[in-house]
Write a structure and sequence with these properties.
alpha/beta; FAD/NAD(P)-binding domain; 13 helices; elongated; binds flavin-adenine dinucleotide; binds nicotinamide-adenine-dinucleotide; NAD
Length: about 475
């Protein structure tokens, strides 16, 4: 029978977020050991690797969302879920302040949740580096709403460009899709856009389609800095064939409603200001620290030198605290902010917490048996043996190893049914690129941490868009 009221004999474990880190922890946690409370403004898990495919309708957005309540229903003991944002964490009083930021609100919109143990898995927000105009005029690509907004805007640009008597310059501007940031998010999105154009827009809006252009702007000398040199070259040459313009060594300085202003560094070191008029602008320049995390860092003296997130030790304990752990993009553990790292960190914490509960149970048994030892002298040999057995188990459980990340490789889709992959295979590194890699990319994502329902939905979407083309209706 699922227990509904919190059990006073158990510790309260509060988990913030329903992303890669928190959900992978939840999936493997023995929830019967704690009073578990999950708090997140999003009542679903989002499979981010396929988010770029939602921007063009290759995949429908609901196919990559997994309701958190479905995940919780599968747990042995009941878990409470509050759809709310954590606004602050007080490590002294051990409470989290939360508020309901959704459209429909009840009489109570703000309250406090006390914890004994806290896991912070709130992810990161989009970096803008304070560049003027970015927040007002560009689209990000992090949440499901972002992908929906982009999908609508692409079609709005196309329909507006097709409007009666539109001037050629205006058609050029409207059909110019600019992507800032040459990390995997920007590259995958540019690839998806190009596919959309080649496979659908060209056929359906032929009279203006030759004006459609994609430009990728990157401040560093090359795109995809985390991939090997040959894959960077492959990506850049594939983009050239696909007519995606790459501008490297180009740093965006300012954004207005219709144009991007950037500083381009020429090979001779000379700098030039260039203006890119755009119809759609997608901003993908990486992560910044969320306010709730920044606030917590400010309350912990040991975090005074942290900049990119909560510094954690090798057991993912937030430095300077005893009962707060952090996972994923909000934690600084020495790894890249990826889903792969976040999900391994979540699994690690699940094992750790399962072990902690076992340790406590064993310690209790041992102390109980030890106290009976004196009361039953006739039985003492048997009881001692039992105690020894439990102590052996305890040593095994207590011997928890620190977190150790195992890198499975990097994979990115680059459009035209091609992908690039740096994969670790039998301890060696394999760099692969092309269409076979793309098939590997697809099967890898299908087999990853995902429910059967979502797998079927994604396969169905892929087939549907191949057979019937993508849906151009602007919802
Ligand atoms: P998230 O998954 O972002 O989850 C954070 C959670 O916290 C969310 O549920 C959010 O709603 C919640 N939250 C936010 N604020 C609060 C608050 N104040 N209180 C409570 N909850 C809060 N990585 C890969 O390894 N491979 C890929 O192919 C890949 N592709 C990607 C594609 C895209 C388009 C993007 C944007 C990222 C991609 N990543 C990929 C990176 C990966 O998504 C992140 O590293 C990963 O999501 C981090 O997990 P997380 O749990 O830290 O945060
Ligand atoms: P990123 O940090 O990887 O890349 C952002 C890029 O933007 C950088 O190359 C940076 O030089 C550039 N940039 C910053 N400011 C700029 C400016 N003003 N003008 C021009 N360029 C500028 O960010 P991301 O691509 O959003 O990825 C975030 C994280 O998610 C990374 O850890 C990444 O590995 C992960 N991710 C992985 C995948 C994948 O594995 N397929 C896909 C998406 C994201």
């Amino acid at each position: 029978e699922p227990q509904v009221e919190p059990d006073p004999s158990k510790k309260t474990l509060v988990i913030l977020g329903t992303g890669w880190g928190s959900v992978s922890l939840l999936k493997q946690l023995d929830t019967e050991n704690y009073n578990v409370i999950v708090i997140s403004p999003r009542n679903y898990f989002l499979f981010t690797p396929l988010l770029p495919s939602c921007t063009t309708g290759t995949i429908e957005h609901r196919s990559i969302m997994e309701p958190v309540r479905t995940i919780l229903r599968q747990k042995k003991a009941s878990v409470k879920f509050y759809e709310a944002e954590a606004s602050s964490i007080d490590p002294e009083r051990k409470v989290v302040r939360i508020f309901d930021n959704s459209e429909i609100r009840g009489d109570i919109t703000e309250t406090e949740v006390p914890y004994d143990m806290l896991v912070v898995g709130v992810g990161a927000e989009n970096a803008t580096f304070g560049i003027p105009g970015v927040r007002e005029h560009s689209c990000f690509l992090k949440e499901i709403g972002d992908a929906q907004k982009i999908r609508k805007r692409i079609m709005d640009c196309v329909e507006t460009a097709a409007f009666k008597d539109q001037s050629p310059e205006e058609i050029n501007r409207l059909l110019h899709m600019v992507v800032v940031g040459g990390g995997p998010t920007g590259v995958e999105f540019a690839g998806e856009l190009q596919d959309f154009f080649e496979e659908d827009i060209k056929k359906l809006v032929p009279d203006i389609s030759d004006r459609f252009r994609v430009t990728l702007i990157e401040a560093l000398p090359n795109v995809l800095p985390m991939f090997s040199k040959q894959l960077i070259e492959y990506t850049e040459s594939t983009f050239k064939e696909e007519k995606i313009n790459i501008h490297t060594k180009t740093m965006v300085k300012k954004v207005t409603d219709k144009a991007v202003e950037a500083e381009m560094t020429h090979p001779d070191g000379k700098k030039e200001t260039v203006v890119f008029p755009y119809g759609l602008l997608v901003w993908a320049t990486g992560n910044a620290v969320r306010p709730v995390v920044k606030d917590l860092m400010g309350r912990i003296p040991a975090q005074k030198d942290s900049r990119r997130g909560l510094a954690v030790n090798e057991y993912l304990v937030v430095q300077g605290t005893r009962d707060i752990w952090a996972v994923g993009d909000c934690a600084v553990a020495g790894y890249a902010p990826t889903a792969q790292v976040a999900s391994q960190e979540g699994s690690f914490l699940a094992r750790l917490f399962n072990n902690m509960a076992k340790t406590e149970a064993l310690e209790e048994k041992i102390s109980h048996l030890s106290s009976t030892l004196n009361l039953q002298p006739g039985n003492s040999a048997a009881v001692s043996r039992e105690i020894e057995g439990y102590e052996r188990q305890l040593r095994r459980v207590k011997n928890a190893k620190p977190f150790n990340y195992s890198h499975q490789g990097s994979l990115a889709y680059i459009g035209s049914d091609k992908a690039v992959a740096d994969v670790t295979w039998f301890n060696g590194n394999v760099a692969a690129a092309g269409s076979l890699t793309y098939i590997f990319w697809r099967s890898a994502y299908i087999s990853m941490c995902f429910s059967t329902r979502n797998r079927l939905l994604v396969i169905n979407d892929w087939l549907k868009s191949k057979v019937f083309g993508r849906d151009l209706s602007r919802e």
